[in-house]
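Lab notebook, bench 4. The sequencing result for the construct came back, and we need a structural model before the next group meeting so we can plan mutations. Quick request posted to the team channel:

Model the 3D structure of this chain.
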Amino acid sequence: MRTSLIAVALASLAAAAPLEKRWAYSKYWNVEGHRGARGEAIESTLPAFAQALVSGVTTLEFDFGVTRDNKVVVWHDETIQPEKCFDTAPAFENDPDFPYVNKSMNDLTLAQVKTLDCGSQRLTGFPLAFTVPGQKLSTLEELFDFVDCATDEPVLFNIESKINPEVEGATKTPAEFMDVFLPILQARGDEFVDRVTHQSFDWRSIILSKKRLPSLRTSALCDDTTIYAYPEGETTGNLTVHGEGAGKWLAGINIDDFEGETIGERVARAAASIKADVLSPVATSYASPVASADLEGWVPFVNSTMVDTAHELGIETHVWTPNTAAIWEYLLDIGVDGFITDYPENVRRFFKAQYPELPLAPKADELRVQKCLIKHNQVHDISA
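Done. Here's the predicted structure in token form:
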């Protein structure tokens, strides 16, 4: 065990204190379950969030889209992907929109979305994820109701609005997202709002949510493909080859307008300029030929200059999606404040074994979670 890493991590928790009140959960190391627990259950479904709760996450991380009839659905993709969902039946007889797979969430109603089976198929990249045949998608309110049932702990929510600034009409606009998202939070009261962070790659939307609801924390997502105008024909993001000027993802911001010898420093200052509370970079650069820090040639996107600059500016760093122990060690060594991981149970076991002094959130009672899952989860009857 490397005591230097523990010292860095504990110092990061202490440094986070000035970010105010925030929930009792600020005392725990921030382990976030990515799309619930994507490596352990079918992503973005109530069973995945149940798995995250019994794994003892600090934060549930997930995305939402908005349907044609302005309902907020917990789901990552802009479109209904055939490798994740399949059609069961039309929402009504002779529905001209049917089939719904491959269509945009923006072009479907909630009733149409509810006909999909998004639990029967296991992605090849996550061979250990358990399936729930017939699984329906949930609304944001349904997820919150399930969590309220499953635990009395004030677990946190890191919620990403899926907005595409590059393709007009692919999703609703930032204003349309905020029109339906913020009232759902506000209806649950100030204490609940204080448990939520709104994150997005489209920095226009987090600027807008901060303006409309100043108490709501925001997180500036970024990776190789969003920090600059993307080069024509480029297929892998990288840190050295980029288009000229600002891309569309950062609200017209050109990071090269900010001081700093490294891209990491400038990214952190750009996030501070929009008053983000959190900077959320990808762990591994898209240019990296290998996937883990213990392999020769690994290229990180997040680095110590990015993290140090963010901390100097009072910004936390929550990194996505580190899934190997070597990357976890690297991130602890440079002082990040949290992981958004597909394997929260494995992260917890790793911390318990290697860094037992890190404070971790309590696990939810598994029996209670399962009872609430039976009560709240929605599945199609596929027995026929």
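The CA atoms of residues 33 and 206 lie 21 Å apart.
Will bring this to the meeting.
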